[in-house]
Amino acid sequence: MAKEIVESLVEGGKATAAPPLGPALGPLKLNIGQVVAEINKKTAAFVGMKVPVKIIVDTETKEFEIQIGTPPASGLIKKEFSLKDGSGIPNKNKIANAAIEDMIKIAKMKETNLSCKNLKSSVKTIIGTCHSMGILIEGKTAQEIYPDINKGSFDKIIDAEKIDVSAQKRTELAEQLTNYQKKFAGELAKMATAKKEKEAAKDKKAAPTDAKGAAAKPVAKPAGKK
């Protein structure tokens, strides 16, 4: 049985027959509309993210199998917390506060793509990505929460693969984030002011000399008569 494999990157839930997918499938004489519909069905949970897909085609029977990969961990994190991007100063400017249950949820989505021995290790990997994006976990930084995970403080939740977070806990997480942000508000304000002053000084230096400060140009004299 001859097999042909087509791999592509599509937007979750919004694949179309346009390039690059359409031209790649065309020569295989498949019902492209049917393939696209199946891809969109399987990637509906990843709307707004780029998703790797693999289409395995039996070139004789025209039957096909679709395998869906998962977006990068950072993409899943941004979607989970409705973030446009990560923090520009992740060590000080924290932009979200996640529950350990959120980490379990994302770790399970990425489990087959992570080279980790168990879910607990996968959770720690996702926490590392959150740290680089300026996201707290349970009100703590990655360095602060890793020891808690290592000593088993969250084993019961992780072993149960719990992913639901109560409204009360969400409120508590929001309060923790606000308190953390207040702690660094003054320092971040000073950093922003210093940045503006540096940019202003740079612009001033690059600006052309004004007429007052410019050296006077010699006045051209009319040519004398011979």
What this model shows, in words?
The protein has 226 residues and is an alpha+beta fold. It folds into two domains: 3-68, Ribosomal protein L11, N-terminal domain, CATH 3.30.1550; 73-185, Arc Repressor Mutant, subunit A. 46% of the residues lie in helices and 13% in strands. It has helices at residues 21-25, 32-42, 73-80, 100-110, 119-133, 142-150, 155-159, 167-206; strands at 3-11, 50-58, 64-68, 96-98, 135-137. The protein has a three-stranded antiparallel sheet with strand order 1-2-3. The chain has a two-stranded parallel sheet with strand order 4-5. The mean pLDDT is 88.
Features:
alpha+beta, 46% helix, Ribosomal protein L11, N-terminal domain, 226 residues, flat, Arc Repressor Mutant, subunit A, two-stranded parallel ribbon
